[in-house]
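Figure S7 source data.
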Amino acid sequence: MSEPRTPVFAANWKMCHGPAETAAFMERFRERHAPRDDATVVVFPPAISLPAFAEARAGRPDLRFGVQDVHAEVEGAYTGAISAAMVPATGATWGLAGHSERRREFGDTDAMVARKLRRLLDAGLRPVLCVGETLEEREAGRLEAVLETQIRAALSALHAEGRARLVYAYEPVWAIGTGRTASPADAAEAHGIVRARLSGFEGCDPPRSVILYGGSVKPANIGQLLAAPGVDGVLVGGASLDPDSWAAICGAGA
Ligand code: 13P
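C-alpha coordinates for the predicted 1,3-dihydroxyacetonephosphate complex:
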Protein backbone atom coordinates (compact mmCIF):
# COMPACT_ATOMS: atom_id res chain seq x y z
CA MET A 1 0.00 0.00 0.00
CA SER A 2 1.41 3.39 -0.94
CA GLU A 3 1.54 6.27 1.50
CA PRO A 4 -0.64 9.33 0.92
CA ARG A 5 1.36 12.16 -0.62
CA THR A 6 0.72 15.58 -2.09
CA PRO A 7 -0.69 15.26 -5.61
CA VAL A 8 1.13 16.32 -8.76
CA PHE A 9 -0.93 18.11 -11.41
CA ALA A 10 0.99 18.01 -14.68
CA ALA A 11 -0.10 19.54 -17.99
CA ASN A 12 1.26 18.29 -21.30
CA TRP A 13 0.39 20.90 -23.91
CA LYS A 14 1.85 18.80 -26.73
CA MET A 15 2.07 20.90 -29.94
CA CYS A 16 -0.37 23.55 -28.69
CA HIS A 17 0.14 27.08 -27.32
CA GLY A 18 2.98 29.06 -28.88
CA PRO A 19 4.57 31.96 -26.97
CA ALA A 20 1.65 34.38 -27.41
CA GLU A 21 -0.98 31.81 -26.36
CA THR A 22 1.23 30.82 -23.44
CA ALA A 23 1.29 34.40 -22.18
CA ALA A 24 -2.49 34.74 -22.56
CA PHE A 25 -3.10 31.39 -20.84
CA MET A 26 -0.91 32.34 -17.91
CA GLU A 27 -2.55 35.71 -17.41
CA ARG A 28 -5.87 33.98 -16.88
CA PHE A 29 -4.56 30.91 -15.05
CA ARG A 30 -2.66 32.97 -12.47
CA GLU A 31 -5.94 34.67 -11.54
CA ARG A 32 -7.80 31.39 -11.31
CA HIS A 33 -5.23 29.34 -9.39
CA ALA A 34 -3.78 30.54 -6.09
CA PRO A 35 -0.52 28.95 -4.91
CA ARG A 36 -1.11 25.84 -2.81
CA ASP A 37 1.61 24.12 -0.86
CA ASP A 38 -0.27 20.82 -0.68
CA ALA A 39 0.20 20.08 -4.39
CA THR A 40 2.75 20.35 -7.19
CA VAL A 41 1.72 22.03 -10.45
CA VAL A 42 3.93 21.58 -13.52
CA VAL A 43 3.28 22.51 -17.15
CA PHE A 44 5.06 21.08 -20.18
CA PRO A 45 4.68 23.70 -22.96
CA PRO A 46 6.22 23.27 -26.42
CA ALA A 47 9.97 23.98 -26.22
CA ILE A 48 9.60 27.24 -28.13
CA SER A 49 7.25 28.52 -25.42
CA LEU A 50 9.51 27.77 -22.44
CA PRO A 51 10.91 31.34 -22.27
CA ALA A 52 7.39 32.78 -22.57
CA PHE A 53 6.22 30.51 -19.77
CA ALA A 54 9.18 31.56 -17.61
CA GLU A 55 8.35 35.22 -18.14
CA ALA A 56 4.63 34.75 -17.58
CA ARG A 57 5.09 32.90 -14.28
CA ALA A 58 7.33 35.61 -12.76
CA GLY A 59 6.60 35.83 -9.06
CA ARG A 60 4.87 32.43 -9.08
CA PRO A 61 7.60 29.86 -8.42
CA ASP A 62 4.85 27.41 -7.47
CA LEU A 63 4.09 27.10 -11.21
CA ARG A 64 6.81 24.74 -12.32
CA PHE A 65 7.49 23.85 -15.93
CA GLY A 66 9.37 21.37 -18.04
CA VAL A 67 10.33 20.19 -21.50
CA GLN A 68 8.25 17.61 -23.41
CA ASP A 69 11.17 15.83 -25.03
CA VAL A 70 14.93 16.07 -25.50
CA HIS A 71 17.39 14.40 -27.84
CA ALA A 72 19.26 11.32 -26.67
CA GLU A 73 22.58 13.08 -27.39
CA VAL A 74 23.92 16.19 -25.65
CA GLU A 75 25.07 18.10 -28.72
CA GLY A 76 25.68 17.70 -32.41
CA ALA A 77 24.27 17.67 -35.92
CA TYR A 78 20.63 16.89 -35.08
CA THR A 79 18.62 19.54 -36.90
CA GLY A 80 15.52 20.61 -35.05
CA ALA A 81 16.35 18.78 -31.83
CA ILE A 82 16.68 20.16 -28.30
CA SER A 83 19.39 19.13 -25.86
CA ALA A 84 18.54 18.56 -22.20
CA ALA A 85 21.65 20.61 -21.38
CA MET A 86 19.97 23.68 -22.95
CA VAL A 87 16.83 23.45 -20.85
CA PRO A 88 17.83 24.61 -17.33
CA ALA A 89 18.76 28.09 -18.60
CA THR A 90 15.05 28.65 -19.36
CA GLY A 91 14.12 28.01 -15.73
CA ALA A 92 12.42 24.70 -16.56
CA THR A 93 13.08 21.97 -14.01
CA TRP A 94 11.19 18.91 -15.31
CA GLY A 95 11.28 16.78 -18.47
CA LEU A 96 9.11 14.10 -20.06
CA ALA A 97 10.53 11.01 -21.75
CA GLY A 98 8.82 8.15 -23.53
CA HIS A 99 5.43 9.71 -24.20
CA SER A 100 3.42 7.34 -26.41
CA GLU A 101 3.16 10.03 -29.10
CA ARG A 102 6.95 10.20 -29.23
CA ARG A 103 7.13 6.42 -29.41
CA ARG A 104 4.46 6.25 -32.15
CA GLU A 105 5.10 9.38 -34.25
CA PHE A 106 8.87 9.74 -33.89
CA GLY A 107 9.99 6.16 -33.38
CA ASP A 108 11.35 6.58 -29.85
CA THR A 109 12.41 3.13 -28.67
CA ASP A 110 12.85 1.94 -25.10
CA ALA A 111 16.62 2.27 -25.58
CA MET A 112 16.28 5.88 -26.76
CA VAL A 113 13.95 6.68 -23.88
CA ALA A 114 16.55 5.34 -21.44
CA ARG A 115 19.23 7.59 -22.96
CA LYS A 116 16.90 10.59 -22.84
CA LEU A 117 16.28 9.93 -19.15
CA ARG A 118 20.03 9.96 -18.59
CA ARG A 119 20.32 13.30 -20.39
CA LEU A 120 17.51 14.79 -18.32
CA LEU A 121 19.15 13.58 -15.11
CA ASP A 122 22.58 14.85 -16.17
CA ALA A 123 21.01 18.27 -16.76
CA GLY A 124 19.58 18.26 -13.24
CA LEU A 125 16.00 18.00 -14.46
CA ARG A 126 13.32 15.87 -12.85
CA PRO A 127 12.39 13.21 -15.42
CA VAL A 128 8.94 11.72 -15.91
CA LEU A 129 9.03 8.30 -17.58
CA CYS A 130 5.81 7.71 -19.52
CA VAL A 131 4.64 4.13 -19.95
CA GLY A 132 1.42 2.53 -21.13
CA GLU A 133 -0.15 -0.11 -23.32
CA THR A 134 -2.10 0.10 -26.57
CA LEU A 135 -5.65 -1.23 -26.79
CA GLU A 136 -4.37 -4.18 -28.82
CA GLU A 137 -1.83 -5.04 -26.13
CA ARG A 138 -4.42 -4.70 -23.37
CA GLU A 139 -6.90 -6.91 -25.20
CA ALA A 140 -4.19 -9.51 -25.76
CA GLY A 141 -3.68 -9.64 -21.97
CA ARG A 142 -0.23 -8.05 -22.23
CA LEU A 143 -0.67 -5.07 -19.87
CA GLU A 144 1.75 -6.37 -17.28
CA ALA A 145 4.35 -7.54 -19.82
CA VAL A 146 4.33 -4.20 -21.68
CA LEU A 147 4.75 -2.14 -18.51
CA GLU A 148 7.47 -4.46 -17.28
CA THR A 149 9.43 -4.16 -20.55
CA GLN A 150 9.17 -0.36 -20.66
CA ILE A 151 10.16 0.06 -17.01
CA ARG A 152 12.97 -2.49 -17.06
CA ALA A 153 14.55 -0.97 -20.18
CA ALA A 154 14.59 2.47 -18.58
CA LEU A 155 15.69 1.53 -15.08
CA SER A 156 18.40 -0.88 -16.20
CA ALA A 157 20.16 2.01 -17.93
CA LEU A 158 20.22 4.28 -14.86
CA HIS A 159 22.29 4.47 -11.70
CA ALA A 160 20.58 4.14 -8.33
CA GLU A 161 20.78 7.92 -7.72
CA GLY A 162 19.09 8.57 -11.05
CA ARG A 163 16.35 6.04 -10.40
CA ALA A 164 15.62 7.72 -7.08
CA ARG A 165 14.68 10.94 -8.90
CA LEU A 166 12.28 9.45 -11.45
CA VAL A 167 8.57 10.20 -11.58
CA TYR A 168 6.34 7.83 -13.58
CA ALA A 169 3.28 8.45 -15.72
CA TYR A 170 0.97 5.58 -16.60
CA GLU A 171 -0.83 6.59 -19.77
CA PRO A 172 -2.88 3.87 -21.47
CA VAL A 173 -2.62 4.73 -25.17
CA TRP A 174 -6.32 3.89 -25.70
CA ALA A 175 -7.31 6.61 -23.23
CA ILE A 176 -5.21 9.45 -24.70
CA GLY A 177 -7.27 12.07 -26.50
CA THR A 178 -10.10 9.58 -26.95
CA GLY A 179 -12.44 10.72 -24.20
CA ARG A 180 -12.19 7.15 -22.92
CA THR A 181 -10.77 7.34 -19.39
CA ALA A 182 -9.41 4.36 -17.54
CA SER A 183 -11.71 3.58 -14.63
CA PRO A 184 -10.27 4.31 -11.20
CA ALA A 185 -10.00 0.53 -10.78
CA ASP A 186 -8.06 0.19 -14.08
CA ALA A 187 -5.74 3.00 -13.01
CA ALA A 188 -5.22 1.49 -9.56
CA GLU A 189 -4.42 -1.89 -11.07
CA ALA A 190 -1.88 -0.49 -13.55
CA HIS A 191 -0.28 1.76 -10.92
CA GLY A 192 0.04 -1.30 -8.70
CA ILE A 193 1.83 -3.12 -11.52
CA VAL A 194 4.20 -0.18 -12.11
CA ARG A 195 4.96 0.10 -8.40
CA ALA A 196 5.59 -3.62 -8.08
CA ARG A 197 7.96 -3.56 -11.07
CA LEU A 198 10.14 -0.92 -9.35
CA SER A 199 11.06 -3.19 -6.48
CA GLY A 200 14.34 -4.94 -6.99
CA PHE A 201 15.95 -1.90 -8.60
CA GLU A 202 18.47 -0.29 -6.26
CA GLY A 203 17.57 3.35 -5.69
CA CYS A 204 13.83 2.83 -6.20
CA ASP A 205 11.52 3.19 -3.25
CA PRO A 206 8.21 1.82 -4.53
CA PRO A 207 5.93 3.01 -1.70
CA ARG A 208 7.25 6.57 -2.13
CA SER A 209 7.49 6.63 -5.92
CA VAL A 210 5.20 9.14 -7.60
CA ILE A 211 3.03 7.62 -10.34
CA LEU A 212 0.76 9.89 -12.38
CA TYR A 213 -2.25 8.80 -14.41
CA GLY A 214 -2.80 10.26 -17.89
CA GLY A 215 -5.56 9.78 -20.43
CA SER A 216 -8.68 11.92 -20.86
CA VAL A 217 -8.44 13.47 -17.39
CA LYS A 218 -10.98 16.31 -16.99
CA PRO A 219 -12.46 18.44 -14.21
CA ALA A 220 -15.37 15.96 -14.10
CA ASN A 221 -13.25 12.88 -13.37
CA ILE A 222 -10.21 14.27 -11.54
CA GLY A 223 -11.73 13.64 -8.10
CA GLN A 224 -12.37 9.95 -8.60
CA LEU A 225 -9.04 9.34 -10.33
CA LEU A 226 -7.06 11.03 -7.55
CA ALA A 227 -8.96 8.97 -5.01
CA ALA A 228 -7.88 5.70 -6.69
CA PRO A 229 -5.28 3.77 -4.66
CA GLY A 230 -1.74 4.45 -5.83
CA VAL A 231 -2.65 7.38 -8.10
CA ASP A 232 -0.34 10.22 -7.01
CA GLY A 233 -1.34 12.78 -9.58
CA VAL A 234 -2.26 13.27 -13.21
CA LEU A 235 -0.71 14.15 -16.57
CA VAL A 236 -3.31 16.02 -18.57
CA GLY A 237 -3.41 16.83 -22.28
CA GLY A 238 -6.54 18.35 -23.82
CA ALA A 239 -8.16 19.57 -20.60
CA SER A 240 -5.01 21.48 -19.62
CA LEU A 241 -5.17 23.79 -22.65
CA ASP A 242 -7.96 25.94 -21.28
CA PRO A 243 -6.92 27.97 -18.20
CA ASP A 244 -10.29 27.58 -16.47
CA SER A 245 -10.39 23.84 -16.99
CA TRP A 246 -6.76 23.48 -15.88
CA ALA A 247 -7.45 25.61 -12.79
CA ALA A 248 -10.41 23.39 -11.94
CA ILE A 249 -8.18 20.31 -12.17
CA CYS A 250 -5.39 21.93 -10.12
CA GLY A 251 -7.91 22.84 -7.45
CA ALA A 252 -8.95 19.22 -6.89
CA GLY A 253 -8.78 18.06 -3.31
CA ALA A 254 -7.91 21.55 -2.02
P1 13P B 1 -5.40 13.74 -22.98
O1 13P B 1 -5.62 14.28 -21.59
O2 13P B 1 -5.71 14.72 -24.06
O3 13P B 1 -6.07 12.42 -23.16
O4 13P B 1 -3.82 13.46 -23.13
C1 13P B 1 -3.17 12.72 -22.16
C2 13P B 1 -1.71 12.78 -22.39
O5 13P B 1 -1.21 12.23 -23.37
C3 13P B 1 -0.88 13.55 -21.46
O6 13P B 1 0.48 13.33 -21.67
